[in-house]
Amino acid sequence: MEKIGKTKEVAKGIYQIEIPTPFPVGPVNVYLLEGAYLTLVDTGPLTEEAWQTLNQGVRDIGYKVKDIRQVVLTHHHPDHCGLLERVRQVSGAFTYSHPLAIPYVKIDDSFMNFQAKFFNRLYYECGVPEESLIIINEFNDLSMSYTERSHIDECLKHDQALPHFPDWHVLFTPGHSQSQLSLYRADDRVMISGDHIIKHISSNALIEPPPNPSSKRPLSLIQYRTSLEMCANMEIDIIFSGHGAPVINHRDLILQRLLENWKRTDTIRGLLKESEKTVYELTTMLFPNVYQKELTLPISETLGHIDLLQILHQLEVKQRNEVLYYSL
Ligand SMILES: [Zn+2]
Ligand SMILES: [Zn+2]
To answer: Mind listing the pLDDT tens digit for each residue in 151-187?
Structure first.
């Protein structure tokens, strides 16, 4: 097996640096784009090991971190943006992201409060017991320790050219995260997708709060499927992901992901045949081994499929004591 931390030119002027993370997903790929403005796409998490690996990777390509002129975040998760502030401090690089990444990158106190309340209510509605809420909060605190408060200089827009790189375009591809974006170079049909499309695992369409308290919860899995369909309609020769190996046959993989969703909805409908259930009860049945460890991911997975069934009017929902019970 090749060692983590390897760096290579994966396409013309695109270098991939593999950076270790403390998360179960394993190493994260960040990309250095050569051009008039040396550009880093994602940074890796805030750990000493990741920082050393990033520095070494950039050196292997013939530059130093201080040479980086701009940083683009594919989305706001700590494995992708945790080192942003360190890179800024060393390089003074200009930073770009999707507008919805900003409260997370700033670690905006009022947004974080709103987010905590949003999840408390959501998990209550899902029927999550008190002791599991403690595990969720511990997990969230731990993942926040791999990032630190930083700053975004400018928000990107869907379909704009990447600043100083007229051949690259920004595409909004929400679903895995509300702030998820991808970069596309039409000349050689190359995409950098962050966590939108990953070859070896299906990206979790994570439930996230709306951008403000007056809006409704985004239906992440529906968004995710739509973003996938948008990419299936594009001519792409190769996708470089935030994790793992590149994707060559993107339409085959997208179809596989879309079909996997329907298999899961069938399973959920099967489980609901006997009796009504909460999202938490369904989650413990769908993910008997993993659900205690990282409950946020499997709950998102279950809830996303419930959303899918609900918009098709294939489920009934009843509320008792603020907990939601689903039945056929
Ligand atoms: Zn992510
Ligand atoms: Zn990731």
So the answer is: 999 999 999 999 999 999 999 999 999 999 999 999 9
pLDDT > 60? residue 2: no
129: in domain: no
User: Span 230-239, mean pLDDT?
Assistant: 98
Q: How many angstroms does the Cα of residue 63 sit away from the middle of ligand 2?
A: 25
Please tell me whether the overall predicted TM-score, pTM, comes out greater than 0.90 for this model.
yes
Residue 197 Cα to ligand 1 midpoint, Å, equals 10
Number of domains in the chain: 1
In angstroms and rounded to an integer, the radius of gyration of the C-alpha atoms of the chain is 20
pLDDT band at 32 (very low <50, low <70, confident <90, very high): very high
* Ligand closest to CA 205: 1
Q: What is the CATH number of the domain that holds 233?
A: 3.60.15.10
Residue 179, domain extent: 7-105+150-255
CA 47 to chain centre: 19
Beta carbons of 253 and 244 less than 8 angstroms apart: no
Is there a contact between 242 and 23 (Cβ–Cβ < 8 Å)? Answer: no
Ligand 2 centre from 239 Cα, in Å?
15
- Distance (angstroms) between ligand 1 centre and the Cα of 319 equals 32
Residue 278 lies in a domain: no
What pLDDT, on the 0 to 100 scale, is given for residue 142? 85
Q: How far is the CA of 75 from the centre of ligand 1 (A)?
A: 7
Report the pLDDT value the prediction gives residue 293, as an integer from 0 to 100. 65
Question: What is the Å distance from ligand 1's center to 318 Cα?
Answer: 32
- Whole-angstrom distance, CA of residue 175 vs CA of residue 169: 19
- Tokens at 307, concatenated: 């959303």
Q: What average pLDDT score do residues 68-92 get?
A: 98
Distances (CA, A) of 3 to 16, 64, 83, 188: 14, 22, 21, 29
